[in-house]
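W.,

You were right to be curious about this one. When I first looked at the sequence I had no strong expectations either way, so I just let the prediction run and decided to look at it fresh. Below is the sequence, 186 residues in total, followed by the output.
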Amino acid sequence: MKHIGTKELETERLILRKVRLEDADEAYKNWCSHDIVAKYVLWDTHKSVEETKELYKIWVEDYENLDTYRWIVELKSTHELVGTIDVASKRYLRFDVAEIGYCYGDAYWNKGYGTEALKRVIKYLFEEVGFEIIFAEHSTLNPGSGKVMQKSGMKYEGILKGRIIDKDGIRNDIASYSITKEEYFS
């Protein structure tokens, strides 16, 4: 495997490209400031656009590292920003394993954008970068995310009991999905 960094990707309806600092205003408006979106992720709702800008500044700087794989998801038809998808953690990279994370504005849920983007990222990470395994996890309170993983070719692996504490302070389970290089190419 050779790290080649974030490359612009396209699907039928989407452009997946590097995050830019100027994306922060629209990202804040479309998902970062939405409590319903933050309910299902490990980060808290952004309190101001400045918080989103600070995060995006770090993300933009991180592109200097070729082991960074992070995209903002944009609609081809309107150039509207709908979310992000990335290799969420670098802790598994030394094993040629990618952990995928994604987040979309609630106005864009149930339209197939998450599946379309995840399929394209999986293709890139297996065919061009050379990962051996790609996995993703979701709170069991968010079964829609599991459907995105299944529709993208990932297989259900099991439940990780009580691994996260939700915004209400309640311990919740995580469901895990993965796809191996052999499964992808077979």
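Here's what jumped out at me. The chain is about 30% helix and 30% strand. And, maybe more interesting for your project: The first helix runs from residue 24 to 32.

Coffee later to discuss?

I.
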